[in-house]
Amino acid sequence: MVRTYLQRSYLFQAIMGLLLCAFLKAAPPNFVIFIADDINFNDFGCTGNPDVQTPRIDALAAAGIRFDNAYLTASSCSVSRNSIMTGRYPHNTGAAELHTQPPINFIAFPQLLKEAGYYTAHSGKFHMGDYANRAFDTIYRSMDDIGTSGMETWAKTVLERPKDKPFFFWLAALDAHRAWGPNTFAGTHKPDTLSVPDIFVDAPDTRKDLAQYYDEIKRFDFHIGMVVEALRNQGVLDNTFILVMADNGRPFPHSKTRVNDRGVKTPFILHWPNEIKTATVSSALISAIDLAPTILDLAGISPLEQFQGRSFQPIIADPSATFRTFAFAEQNWHDYEAHQRMVRHRDFLYILNSRTEQPKLGPADAVGSPTHADLLAARERGTLTAIQAEVFVAPRPREELYDLAFDPEQRINLASHPDYHQELQALRAVLAAWQHQTADTTPDTITRDWYKPVPGYIQTEHHGIRGEMPGSAASAHTVNHPGPF
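Above: the chain's sequence. Below: its structure in token form.
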């Protein structure tokens, strides 16, 4: 009798356990991606900048995972975003240049979430192709809705969601893109109190430029806090995967449109209370193309064949785990002619430049900035330091190699150093394999400069004329090979 009762008791417990598992499985995670516009990887308090005020982002990092080696595939707005959305390298999207679109038959990964029953919404800067429209139930991108910051509808997106569905939100700020617009937080950062990076000239206009940039980051941080509070009030914060990242480096000389850390390394802060119990830092190498397969993996949805990345779910489970051996990035036309390729290894970063005659001034908005004007003035005076003058160097070296162990800022090019010949050859071979396997090409007639490399957006005779898109001659948009991992 007692044994029968115990057997029944154990059976009841087993059934209840199965029901609990079924219930938990029926509550898939929610996803919120905050993507900033033009913010460097180290321009939050939690990522190493003591001058900028980001208490809400810092709080997410203090209870989550901060990834210190997450890399974008391009340092160019639409190019980077389309790469994230499709899980593909830029030349494999058919949209390797700024303001170009992938083919309409491409699939943005939120579309698969939508088809699986998720409510999907986009709020803020879009800057992607028409193909991505299908991925969202709701899109707020009219300036009447999103305002000057791109974030005015973020909290509304959370509040007005259907409460009977899991959700995916792509919340895309216009901050901190130039020009600096009206900002409630203007004046938060005082120019006289800031530390000026040594890549810039320490001058009043540069200090003011940095302060206004930080003010826009402050606004980005504030609106993140509003969304987090709304999620908390709705009781869904614990089961929501929240990621804070950016699309490329800051809109200053030395950063945006570069393929070094200042251009393609992104802040990558993950907060997910149900799965992350202890704050930690991961040094694992991650690529932006890994985000799509990761989110689908966590949602229990099979990945697409088009994805060239892999799920980094194992790192969420164990942040000390290793993941990639290599991460790749490319830079093609963005205001000015360009064709650079980069491979990042744990210990080294290698860059191949096929347009050595071009200086690396940054995009046109950086060229028109007060910070650039101060660099020009110092150049005229003959007072530039070597690192400040680097943006004006032309012709540039065809190859660059940096030893990250002692040169994390990537300032000393070791490509011609005999002691590094073995490392140079190895990474040269890895990059060549990636280009071959992913059908990357180096056209002779790529898009030329649309603007003169001087302030003011002065158009050239090539303005509005596109050259051959990298990868197009090899039909790279049809190639799914991931390249070396």
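The first helix runs from residue 2 to 25.
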